[in-house]
Write a structure and sequence with these properties.
With 240 residues, the protein is mostly helical. The protein is built from 9 helices and 2 strands, in the order H-H-H-H-E-H-H-H-E-H-H.
Length: 240
């Protein structure tokens, strides 16, 4: 039983590797689903470890190593691919603009720094300092899904996500958010009571309503709401 959480973590790592393969083959939407699977497995391994009493130091280190790949390298490579495609459309005759694509690798660099800090910081169990890497990865993977979604179209958002400078700006902001001294609440619910989880429940309700309204285009707005709620400190009362 004690090895099950680590096995789940390795599946998370495998999903991240398969996402990279999908990106290399030009299947960005498929890669997005692999990263979503990795995020689910990332939640599951910790929950199983706590339920089975098999939380371990090696599990924590393995989790961060898997996260660097699934929520750092894979999203960074996705930004690289998106920028390659975007610069080819907007600047077909300017070869120097193709170097913009390498901006995408800021994501894995800052993700590695974020995870290294997390591993030595004992004060990030109920609250995070800096944007969690899975949250950043979800933001990145929403880009190809949003752009290719025909169910709901938001022209100005699609234009922003398709433009090279929009992608570069978004990449820089997401990278800095991972290491910013910004206190963000954890989504782990330790009590069902409203007064202990106001911010979490408000975010969940907002996310569900918005997702059913505009599908994956909702992810940037959910991320913004997450930051706003954290800044408002609606979750000050934590369950003991």
């Amino acid at each position: 039983m004690k090895h099950i959480p680590n096995f789940i973590t390795l599946l998370n790592l495998l999903a991240g590797c398969l996402a990279i393969v999908a990106i290399a083959n030009g299947a960005l939407t498929h890669a997005s689903w692999w990263i979503i699977l990795a995020a689910v497995l990332d939640l599951l391994d910790g929950a199983v470890a706590r339920m089975t009493g098999s939380v371990s130091a090696i599990g924590k280190q393995l989790d961060s190593l898997a996260d660097v790949v699934s929520f750092g390298v894979a999203p960074g490579f996705m930004i690289y691919a998106l920028l390659n495609n975007s610069t080819a459309i907007y600047y077909p005759d300017n070869e120097s603009m193709y170097y913009l694509a390498y901006t995408g690798f800021l994501i894995p660099l800052f993700a590695a720094l974020r995870l290294a800090r997390f591993n030595i910081d004992t004060g990030q169990e109920k609250n995070f300092t800096g944007m969690p890497t899975p949250t950043v990865a979800l933001m990145v993977l929403s880009i190809p899904i949003t752009v290719n979604c025909t169910l709901v179209e938001i022209p100005w958002l699609n234009d922003f996500l398709n433009h090279p400078w929009g992608l570069v700006g978004l990449t820089i902001v997401l990278s800095l958010l991972m290491v910013a001294p910004l206190r963000l609440f954890s989504l782990k619910i330790s009590s069902i009571y409203w007064k202990y989880n106001r911010a979490r429940y408000i975010l969940i309700i907002f996310a569900v309503v918005l997702f059913f309204s505009i599908r994956f285009a909702s992810i940037p707005f959910i991320l913004l709401m997450y930051i706003i709620l954290s800044l408002l400190k609606l979750n000050e009362a934590e369950a003991e």
